[in-house]
Amino acid sequence: MRAGVLRHGLNLWPPFLFAGIHVTALSPDYRHARVELRMRPWNRNYVGTHFGGSLFAMTDPFWMLLVLHHLGREHRVWDKAGEIEFVRPGRGTVHTEFHLDDPTLDALRAEAAGGGKVLRWFENDIRDRDGQLIARVRKQLYVRRKPGR
To answer: Do 45 and 52 touch, CB atoms closer than 8 A?
Structure first.
């Protein structure tokens, strides 16, 4: 699927649309994505800052999508685990970026070549418009080469 079509589809996907999550960039080569969370009355918590679940949701499912696009049908790629560290309250529009490089993809292919499962952690930061760190997110991917491939 073309990256632009997927980006538009994700922006219309109800869990993102109603949470205020907006995919602002998905590169044609599936190496980079940028996602924003816009402050809305329905995604604020009791004290008027971004709801933590929305902060975490804005990072899902991008690592899986980027890796799956490059490893292709001969691999299974799933989100296995995730964690978030809240550093400071988020207000206004916050953003995060995902960057996937060749050494990471090469390592995943090599580690999965024998058919065993590979567990790899990916990290990204959520920042506000001034660059202040709001939260750190870690996602663990499960990667395995499909039998007979």
So the answer is: yes
pLDDT above 90 (res 107): yes
Name the domain count of the chain: 1
Choose among 64, 77, 138: nearest CA to 112: 77
- If one counts every other C-beta atom within 10 angstroms of the C-beta of residue 44, the result is 16
Q: Are 34 and 97 in contact (CB under 8 A)?
A: yes
Helical residues (DSSP H) of 30-89, grouped into ranges: 52-57, 62-71
Question: 62: which 2 tokens?
Answer: 């991008």
- What is the tens place of the pLDDT at every residue in 36-83? 999 988 888 999 999 999 999 999 999 999 999 999 889 999 999 999
**CATH label of the domain that carries residue 24:** 3.10.129.10
Q: Are strands 133-145 and 94-99 parallel, antiparallel or unpaired?
A: unpaired
Instruction: Give the relative orientation of helices 102-112 and 62-71 as an angle to the nearest 10 degrees.
Output: 70
pTM of the model: 0.92
Structure token digits, residue 53 = 């679940």
Structure tokens at 112: 């999965």
